[in-house]
Every structure is written in structure tokens, then in C-alpha cells.
What we know:
Elements: H1 10-13, H2 16-20, H3 32-37, E1 48-49, E2 65-68, E3 73-77, E4 83-87, H4 95-98, H5 112-115, H6 125-132, H7 138-152, H8 161-173, H9 182-197, H10 213-230, H11 239-251, H12 262-272, H13 286-310, H14 331-353, H15 361-384, H16 391-400, H17 403-409, H18 412-417, H19 421-425, H20 428-443, H21 451-456, H22 460-472, H23 479-492, H24 499-511
Helix pairs in contact: 7-8, 7-9, 9-10, 9-11, 10-11, 11-12, 11-13, 12-13, 13-14, 14-15, 14-16, 15-17, 17-20, 20-22, 20-23, 22-23, 22-24
Amino acid sequence: MVSQKRSRNRKIVSCIPCHQNKRKCDKKLPCTRCMRIGKTCSYEVNTRNTTEQDSTTSPSDDSGNQYSDGNKGYLVMGESGRSKYISGGFWNQYTSVTTRLPTQDAPKSWGTLFFDLSVRVTNSVDTKVFLTSFIPPRDHGLFLLDRYEQAVYPFVPMVSPEWIRERYIKDCLETTQVDVDCCFFSLLYAICYASAATFDEDDKLPAFMPSSLRSLRQAYLVACEHSILAGGFPQDPTIGDLRACVLVQSCLVHEPSRLAPVTPVAIKVAQTMGFHRDGTNYSLPPDVTESRRRLWWQLVFLDQIEAVNRDMLTSIREDEFDTRLPQEEGFMMDTLRERYSAMIVQGQVMGALYGIRPPSPGAVDNLMKEIERVRKRAERFVKLHPEGKTDFERYSIKKMLMVPDKINLLMVPYFLKIGYYQGAESLVDTGLRYANTLCDLYRTPEFKPFAWFVRSCPPYHAVSLLIIVLHQNPYHEKADQLRQAIDDTFKYCRPQGGVGWDALDDMRERLLKENQQLEGIDWKEWEFLFPSANLELFEPNSVGINDI
């Protein structure tokens, strides 16, 4: 019997750069080797448009542009920014049923139960007339759009400032607004809210702007909520509605909002729309692919921020998506790619340390090596951009150097979990440096437009570590610096994080009371803040890492 040589599936075995260089690949996206050396990681994908249909599939005429990726699923691109993703397997036999998309906005109040709105929201003329009442006047609107381009878009580059400004002038100032779809309203009001959120109450604004920023933000927030629901979110969402949700969530300050818990919902909505699959798998146009990548990675960023603030695992797993990093050139996109690459390592650290089963010492060593690679990448980025030309570039360079410290501080819960207090205490200098740098960024006048981004990334683990060390050793050699750093963090970077941050604030006030005495503070009272910590081992003479 003649043996037949079996061809290997390179898409499964290794990525293209590792295969070409004959290197071992861990088959992630991006893989560890490509991320370490700065290569663009990609895999061979057999793309097949569904114009060449299998005999088992017969999509309907109203299903829009349909694409397939072998057995991995179908992606249907519809009108008004709608899309639908169907995974491979059983549903491949029924794509004509499962991939139908509506041709117009939802005519009923979908989503009202989730957001608990008392007002029935529809896409009728009455609803649009109601929404047009929030459209800002020309001077007001252009001022907020300029602020969006300066302070928000560099961090959340999902909606082009030129496009939204052109649509605002054309559809809101020069024509009848009733003809505009609700998707545009949701984007416009989300951008207006985000722009207003970048100002502080003590900022001097032009005379045509309202005196109460809080009332202004709340008005745009309400308008954005109603616009999103009128478009059919979350049952029948458009990409504009999803962008509006992500933008509001990225800039949300302290206003009570029904959009506050929307990140997990937005993640699932994005997955049903296929954003977790890269557009190159389906031969989508480059501009469409790039816009989908930006939105998905901003969701990954929000997911990790919420997970860090709550000391929990992320909702998005690394092996559940293959959407690549944005590929456009320029300093802004280089900064985003570096931030997102660091997020991949941060997700690996959180997945290993926050799980039910503690990682092995070998796994911890590998994580420390990954963190060291992140530090080297950050230093290499700073060497390539030694001096920023604009305030944003100078701010980004300083922020980039903080990324390794941020990931290092994620090790604190692990050290507490195994009772290695000395390991946590060894990161005191890191926590001090991270907290003080954040406060310095907030206090620097030229960085004031970016202060909202400082608040959106609160130093939860840094503050937790400083409070723990100060509680364990009130006469620490750096006790004064610890107290000052804790106080400054809550003064300048007052974060919103729910019960955890409120409890930390309460502990801070008690730590800074008269004579700075700690009598009467029961550590068990704060046990819920650090659910993974083994508090019984919180002794100065506890075991070391090598004794575990």
C-alpha cells in the first residue's frame, strides 16, 4: 500500500512569520513570538465568498451580502450598519433562515426592558421630533465636536471627526432633521456627551455654553439612551448604536445611567454581529475591516478595565476571537497597537492569577517574562518617539511607560492569595510610582484635556496595595509618601468603581484620621475587597515564594 503524504494545515500549525522562519508558534493571535519581536502576526485563511454556494445553503434574497469562512461560520452584512454572524456546524444547513436581516429600523420598543425606561421608544416621527430637540446650536455643536477631535478621538478612534462634523452641518443645520435615522442621533449625542465629560466644573467655557456641565452631560446622556433604543438596541443593533454605547461607556463619569452596565451586553451584541472575527476572513473591504477592528478592540479594553476595577476575570477570552489589531499608520495608531498588545499580556496575567486554581511557580515565571517583554516594548516605543510634537504625543509617551507597572501590580492578588506578604510589599515602589505618575498627569495643565482618560483607568491595585501596606505597618519608612499618594489619587483621579472604591475611600479616611492611628480598624471588615487574599497569612513572618 502506497503511503500518501498528508499536507499540514498551516492555519492550525503556525502563523505565517513563524512558519517562514521555522520557529515554534503557540498559535495565538498575535502569537507570543510575533508580539515579542514586533512582527505582524497572520495566518493562512482559505477565504470563500458565498457566491459559490454549497448545495446545502440557499440564502434568501433579503439576506444582504453574505460571506463564509469554511466551517467557521457565516457573516451577513446588511443595510444601516447591521450585520449578523452565524457560527459553523449545524446552522450551516439553515443559513437561509438564520441570516436574514431587517431592511429598516425596528418599529417597536426593543430593549426597553433591559434599560428599564418608562418612555416607550420607537423609531416613529414623534420619536425623531423628540430627539431633535437635543440637537445643539451651531456654535455649541462645533465647539463640542472640536473638543471631541482634540481630547476623545485619539483614545477612542471609532468615529471620524471629519465625518461627524460634516453630517452634523448637513443633516442637523441645513436640512430637516426628521429624515435623519436614529443611528446618527445616537452617535452625535454620544460624542457630545463624551466631549462634555472631558471638562471639569472649574474650566472656563465660552459664553454660549451652559453654565452647568453636569446638567449638560445628563441631557446628552438621556438623548443618547433614547436614540440607541429607537434604533433597536440590543435585539436589532446597528454598528452606530454599538459605537455610541462603547463611546459613552468609555467616557462615563458619575452620572447615573442605564448604560452603565452595558459593556457585557455590548460584548455579546458585538459577537452576534461578528466583530470577534477579522474582516479579512470574509474579504470585507479594508475600510470596513479597519472600523470593525477598532470597535472590537475598544470593547476588549473596556472589558479589561472593568475586570481590573472589580478584581475579576475578563468576559472576553483570548481564544474566542481572531480580530487583528488596527493596521493604519501614524503615531495615534502606533500608540493604540502598543496599548492593545499590552492588554493581551494583561489578559493572560489576569486569566492565570484570578482563576479558581492558582498557577504553578513555572507559570508565574512565564508571566513575569511576558511582563518584562512588555516593559522592553514600551521602552522601545519611547526610543522611537523620544520627543512628542503635540501634547497628546507627550502624554502618550508618559502613559506608555506606566503600562509595565500597571501589569506588575496585577500580581498583588496572587501574592496575597498564597500568603506571600513580602512579595506584595516589594511592589510598594511600583505602586507609589504608578499612583504619583497618574496624579502628575492630571495636574499638568497641558494634559488637562486628557484628564478624563486618567479617571477612566483608576489605579485600583496600586491604591489597594498602598492601603494594605499602611495598614500592616503604620510606621513604614515611606508611610508619609503612602498617605500622600492615596490622598492625591482620590483627590485628582476620583474613580467610579462601585462598592469597592467606596470602601477603599472609607479606609483612606480612617487611615488619615487624627494622629494617623489605626486602632479600631478590623481587617476582616474589608475582606470582600480582596476575595482572593488569604488574610490569615497576613503576618510579617509569613512564608516566602520559594517555600510554597
